[in-house]
Design a protein that fits this description.
This protein is an alpha/beta fold and 431 residues long. It contains twelve helices and 19 strands. Bound molecules: inosinic acid.
C-alpha cells in the first residue's frame, strides 16, 4: 500500500534524518533512493548520536528493513565502515534486513580524485562539492561506462572493468588536470575486498519494495540533499548530480507513482546552505553566527559529512513554495524551531525583487536568482526556551504565529515541529 516520500525543501541539512527516524517507528521498509555518502543524516536516540551517510536512518529501529536503491552511488568502503560502526553499537546489520540494489553505481578512488581535480580547476567558480566523487560517478553512469554494484558478484569481471575505468580516469587526471594518477592495483584490490563483504547484501530492491507495497506494508523513502540541490530543478550548476526531488524516489527505487500517499517536505525554521551558489536570505553578520552556533553541539550548523560551517540566513518562503510545487508536498515538517528562541524579531522572505521586478516564484535562471533581493516580512520573536514544549498550543503565541505564517506562505500544512535533537522533542500539529 502506501509509500511515503521525505524530501528536503531547502539546500539539504534540513534534519531529514531525524524526521525519517521519527516516521520509521511506523514503517516496514526505509529506503534511500539517490545520492551517496555526500549525505549526512544525524539522528539522536537517548544520549547517543548516530551519523549516517548511506544506510537509511530507519536502521535504528530493529523491525525496519533498510534498502538502498538503484538511484544511489555507493562508496563501498564508506558503506562497510558505516555498517561495522553500527554493528559495534549493537545495531543489527545482517543481510536479512539490509539490501543494496545491484543497479546502483560504485564510486571508486578515481571518482574522488576527479572530483577534487575538477573543483580545483573551477577555481573561484567551484561548486564546493563534498569531494566524495559523487559527480564523476554519475557522469560515468550517464555516459554508460559506470561500474554497477551488481558487478561485485564476479570478481574477475569486476577487476577488469574497474581497472579499465581507473586507467581511463588516470589519463584524464594526468593529461587534462595535470595531477597524480590514482593507484590502479590498490583501487582494484580495494573494490574486490569490499565485494566479499557486500555481495550478501545484494537484492532486487525494486521488486522487494513493490512486493512490500502490494502486501500493504509501509515504505518510507528517505531523500538526501534538498530541493535546491536537484540536478534538474535546483540552482544549476551549484547542485548535486542526482534527482533529489520526490520524483527521484520513483526512478531511484523503481516504483510507480500510484503507491505514494504522502510527500513530506522537511524545512528548517531558518535557511542554511553549504557549498557555493546564491542564497538570497544569507546573513553574514552576528545574527548569522547566532543561527550557526559554535560547533560545540552535534546539531550546530556544521556539515555532518565535511564539517564545513554552513551559511545561515532567514527563512525563505519563495523556496518553500517552490519545494511544495516541484515535489507535490502533502505536508511539511519544520525542524529546529528552538534555535529561533531568543530573537526579538524574525524575518521571512515572502517574495524577491529581481532586476527591479517583484517576483513571487523561484527564478529558473541562475543569473536572476543570483541577484534576487529578498522582500522581508518581519514578525515578533519569542524569548522563552521551547525545548521542553510538546503541545502546539503550549508554544509561545509568537512561535505559533511563525509556524502558521510558514504554512500560509508555503501553502502546505505543518504536521510536525521539532524543538530539539532528541526523538521526543517533537510537537505534532493537527492538520
Ligand atoms: P556533491 O554532491 O558532493 O557533488 O556536492 C554538490 C553540492 O551539493 C555542494 O554544494 C555540496 O555542498 C552540496 N551537498 C551535497 N550533499 C549535501 C548534503 O547532504 N547536505 C547539504 N549539502 C550537500
Amino acid at each position: 500500500m502506501p509509500a511515503h516520500i521525505v524530501v528536503g525543501m531547502q539546500w539539504g541539512d534540513e534534519g531529514k534524518g531525524r524526521i525519517v527516524d521519527w516516521l520509521s517507528g511506523k514503517a516496514d521498509i526505509a529506503a534511500r533512493y539517490a545520492g551517496g555518502d555526500n549525505a549526512g543524516h544525524t539522528v539522536r536516540v537517548g544520549d547517543e548520536t548516530f551519523k549516517l551517510h548511506l544506510v537509511p536512518s530507519g536502521v535504528l529501529y530493529p523491525n525496519v528493513k533498510c534498502v538502498m536503491g538503484a538511484g544511489m552511488v555507493i562508496n563501498p568502503i564508506t558503506l562497510i565502515r558505516e555498517l561495522n560502526g553500527l554493528a559495534e553499537r549493537g545495531i543489527d546489520i545482517s543481510p536479512e534486513r539490509i539490501h543494496l540494489s545491484p543497479r546502483a553505481h560504485l564510486i571508486t578512488s578515481a571518482h574522488r580524485a576527479l572530483d577534487a581535480a575538477r573543483e580545483s580547476q573551477r577555481g573561484e567558480s567551484a561548486i564546493g562539492t563534498t569531494m566524495r566523487g559523487i559527480g564523476p560517478a554519475y557522469v560515468d553512469k550517464t555516459a554508460r561506462e559506470g561500474v554497477r554494484v551488481g558487478e561485485m558478484v564476479n570478481l574477475d569481471r569486476l577487476a577488469d572493468h574497474v581497472r579499465e575505468r581507473i586507467e581511463a580516469a588516470n589519463r584524464t587526471l594526468t593529461d587534462q588536470y595535470h595531477v597524480e594518477p590514482v593507484g590502479v592495483n590498490s583501487a582494484v584490490d580495494e573494490l574486490c575486498k569490499a565485494a566479499a563483504f557486500l555481495t550478501p547484501y545484494l537484492a532486487d530492491v525494486s521488486l522487494e519494495v513493490y512486493e512490500a507495497l502490494q502486501a500493504g506494508k509501509t515504505v518510507l523513502c528517505e531523500g538526501a540533499q534538498g530541493t535546491l540541490l536537484d540536478l534538474d530543478h535546483g540552482g544549476y550548476p551549484f547542485v548535486t548530480s542526482s534527482s533529489t526531488l520526490a520524483g527521484g524516489a520513483l526512478t531511484g527505487l523503481g516504483i510507480g507513482p500510484h503507491h505514494v500517499d504522502r510527500v513530506i517536505g522537511v524545512g528548517k525554521a531558518f535557511t542554511t546552505r553549504v557549498g557555493s551558489g546564491p542564497m538570497p536570505t544569507e546573513l553574514q553578520d552576528a545574527l548569522g553566527n547566532e543561527l550557526r552556533g559554535t560547533g560545540e553541539n552535534p546539531w550546530d550548523e556544521y556539515g555532518t559529512t565535511t564539517g564545513r560551517p554552513r551559511r545561515t540566513g532567514w527563512l525563505d518562503a519563495v523556496i518553500l513554495r517552490y519545494a511544495a510545487r516541484v515535489n507535490g508536498l502533502t505536508e511539511m515538517m519544520i525542524t529546529k524551531l528552538d534555535i529561533l528562541s531568543g530573537f526579538e524579531e524574525l524575518k521571512i522572505a515572502t517574495e524577491y525583487t529581481v532586476n527591479g521586478q517583484t517576483v513571487r516564484h523561484m527564478p529558473s535562471e541562475l543569473n536572476e536568482f543570483a541577484v534576487a533581493q529578498p522582500i522581508y516580512e518581519t514578525m515578533p520573536g519569542w524569548l522563552d526556551d521551547i525545548v521542553d514544549v510538546r503541545e502546539f498550543n503550549a508554544l509561545p503565541s509568537a512561535a505559533q504565529h511563525y509556524v502558521e505564517r510558514v504554512e500560509a506562505l508555503a501553502g502546505v500544512p505543518v504536521r510536525l515541529i521539532s524543538v530539539g535533537p532528541a526523538r521526543e522533542q517533537s510537537i505534532e500539529k493537527k492538520l
